[in-house]
Amino acid sequence: MLNQSTDLDRMFHALSDPGRRAMLDRLVRGPASVKDLAEPLAMSLPAVLQHLQVLEVGGLVTSQKIGRVRTCSLRPDALRAAEAWLSDRRGIWESRFDRLGQFLSEQDDQSGDRS
Amino acid sequence: MLNQSTDLDRMFHALSDPGRRAMLDRLVRGPASVKDLAEPLAMSLPAVLQHLQVLEVGGLVTSQKIGRVRTCSLRPDALRAAEAWLSDRRGIWESRFDRLGQFLSEQDDQSGDRS
Description:
Distance between the termini of chain A: 54 Å
Number of helices of chain A: 5
Largest sheet of chain A: 3 strands, antiparallel
Oligomer: homodimer
CATH superfamily of the largest domain in chain A: Winged helix-like DNA-binding domain superfamily/Winged helix DNA-binding domain
Shape of chain A: rod-shaped
Number of strands of chain A: 3
C-alpha cells in the first residue's frame, strides 16, 4: 500500500509539469532520442535530462543508452494506473448520484401512489 | 492553452500527495466538514486546511464556510479532465500498436501469397 501510494505520488508529480507532459505527448507516438525530445520543446539537453529523470522515477518512461544515443520509450502501464485511479473515484462519485436519483424516483412513485 | 496547461499542472500537483488523495477518497462519498476530513487521517486541522487549499487551487474541491463550519465538496469535472487527458494519450499509444499489428498482419498475408 505504501509503495503503491508512493508510486502514485511520483507519477502524478511527473505529470504536473507542462514540459514533461509535452515529452509524453511525443513519446506516445513512439520512442525518441533525448535530442528529438529537446528540439520541439526549445529546451536545453540538461533540462530535458532532468525532466526525463522525473518521468523515469514516476514510472512513465524508460530509457536506454546505446553508444552515445539515449532512446526514451513510454511505459503505458503507469498511464493506465493513473487513469484507473481517477476512473475508480469517478465511478464511486457517479454511483452516489445514481443511488440518489433512484431514491428520489422512488419517493416520487410513493407520493404518486398516495395522491 | 496556457491556462488549460496551468490547470493541469495544479490538478496533477494536487493529486501527487497521499493525504490529499485520501481527502478526495472521502469527498467522492459526499461533502464533509474540515473536521470530518481531518479525523480519519490523523492530521491536524491546519495541515488539512493547507491540503484543502492545494485541492481548491487544483480545481478538485470547493468549500464553503457557513457559521463556524467549512464544508468541502468534490468538483468532479477536474477528475474527468485529468482522466480525459490520460485516456487521450492511451488512445494514441494503443492506436499506434493497432496500426503496427495491421501492418505486420498485411506483411504476413503478402509473404503467404508469395509462398
